[in-house]
Backbone:
């Protein structure tokens, strides 16, 4: 949520009232299962009516469980992990070939970086000098079946991206200023931002707990979560 909020707060050049503006920056939520966070941010920005959020996941709603291009502001349907970076490379290359000024932002999960397609795309981006491409990895250390380092170790994560020819920045993924500066800096190579985050940040019983990858809070748990997330008066 923090990553997307900063990205849409002025980093990405988009027009909520003209969602298909040809020269817009492209944003790809490769970790498409986080679609609810994206829909909420898009609604706050004016791409959607906030009231539509109540239709999420209901029959006939365009707000599906995975990001869907039928929703204004969603450039790519995603959900099958490992493909977002490859798509982003193609869009970035097309921008350079057509002299279009758009930037491409791809938000990846750390778990999907265990897939070979990610590293193939990483080689492609460096080879073609795609300095209009920025990847942000939500590095929370957890995936569906447990810790990323137990399932299939990613470390030394930053060094691997450097070896593939990328500019690497590591930030606190819950610090808006750090995210803003990292996302906004001029580039001379494809850029990856490793955003270190805490899964379930701000809710005491959810933080760093893998079961909340699947579980839905009951009414009592929801009340506690909302009270803990309530901003100070």
Residues:
């Amino acid at each position: 949520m923090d990553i997307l909020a900063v990205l849409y707060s002025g980093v990405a050049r988009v027009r909520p009232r003209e969602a298909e503006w040809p020269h817009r920056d492209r944003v790809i939520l490769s970790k498409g299962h986080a679609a609810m966070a994206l829909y909420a941010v898009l609604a706050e920005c004016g791409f959607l009516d906030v009231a539509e959020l109540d239709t999420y996941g209901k029959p006939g709603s365009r707000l599906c469980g995975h990001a869907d291009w039928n929703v204004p502001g969603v450039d790519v349907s995603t959900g099958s992990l490992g493909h977002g970076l490859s798509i982003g490379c193609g869009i970035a290359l097309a921008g350079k070939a057509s002299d279009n000024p758009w930037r491409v932002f791809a938000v990846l999960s750390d778990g999907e970086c265990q897939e070979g397609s990610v590293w193939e795309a990483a080689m492609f981006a460096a080879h073609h000098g795609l300095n209009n491409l920025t990847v942000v990895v939500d590095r929370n250390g957890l995936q569906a079946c447990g810790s990323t380092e137990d399932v299939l170790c990613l470390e030394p994560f930053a060094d691997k991206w450097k070896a593939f020819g990328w500019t690497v920045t590591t930030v606190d993924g819950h610090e808006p200023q750090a995210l803003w500066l990292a996302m906004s800096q001029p580039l001379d190579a494809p850029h990856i931002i490793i955003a270190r985050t805490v899964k379930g940040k701000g809710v005491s019983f959810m933080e760093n707990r893998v079961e909340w990858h699947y579980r839905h809070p009951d009414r009592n748990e929801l009340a506690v979560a909302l009270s803990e997330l309530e901003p100070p008066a």
The beta strands are 26-29, 104-109, 133-139, 142-143, 146-147, 167-172, 191-196. Helices lie at 2-11, 35-45, 84-97, 116-127, 148-151, 157-163, 176-184, 219-229. The chain has a mean pLDDT of 96.
